[in-house]
Write a structure and sequence with these properties.
With about 170 residues, the chain is of the alpha+beta class. It contains five helices and four strands. Helix 2 crosses helix 3.
Length: about 170
């Protein structure tokens, strides 16, 4: 799908707030509400807009620990990689997974309720997988910036300023 300036404006607005009404979006980008509605439908159908999700603080739902885990596989065969990718999709603890270049093969971002819960995950998922050669865990100390907004280059120089994200003060509780 070829994106024009209006499509890019719509994408920038939708990334800033998925709660905008079509009328608000129309005012922000300079189109009619019906034109915005049609363009949004087309952007969704073309999977330019993959999903509209709420970002939830894991601590609010009892997942107090976030980890970044690098995983190196035993062999880099396509069937081994495909099997690992599929197994990752089935793990609720894993929020994000990236197949990467460099020292490791995958980078995982996951949450756990406790270190004991993470240890159980490691036993069940990483140690039990014969194709995992090694892994390294980094525990997140502070969520400095979290989001999925992609910079939308506007050829006409038009830009949308994103509203500031509310930032919870760090808790001293474990």
């Amino acid at each position: 799908m070829e994106l024009d300036a209006f499509d890019r404006r719509i994408l920038a607005c939708v990334q800033a707030s998925t709660r905008m009404t079509t009328a608000q979006l129309a005012r922000a980008v300079g189109l009619s509400p019906s034109a915005c509605h049609r363009r949004l439908a087309a952007l969704r159908a073309a999977r330019v807009i993959e999903a509209e999700v709420a970002l939830i603080d894991p601590r609010a739902v009892g997942r107090r620990i976030t980890m970044i885990v690098t995983v190196t596989l035993e062999r880099e065969h396509s069937d081994v990689i495909a099997a690992f990718k599929q197994s990752v999709r089935d793990q609720v603890e894993i929020m994000q997974c990236y197949y990467v270049t460099g020292q490791a093969d995958f980078v995982l971002v996951l949450t756990a309720k406790s270190m004991e819960a993470y240890d159980a995950f490691v036993e069940r998922f990483l140690f039990a997988n014969r194709n995992v050669r090694r892994f390294e865990t980094m525990v997140v100390m502070d969520r400095v910036k979290v989001g999925f907004a992609v910079p939308v280059d506007a050829p006409d120089g038009w830009a949308v300023s994103r509203p500031a994200s509310p930032r919870r003060p760090r808790s001293s509780a474990p």
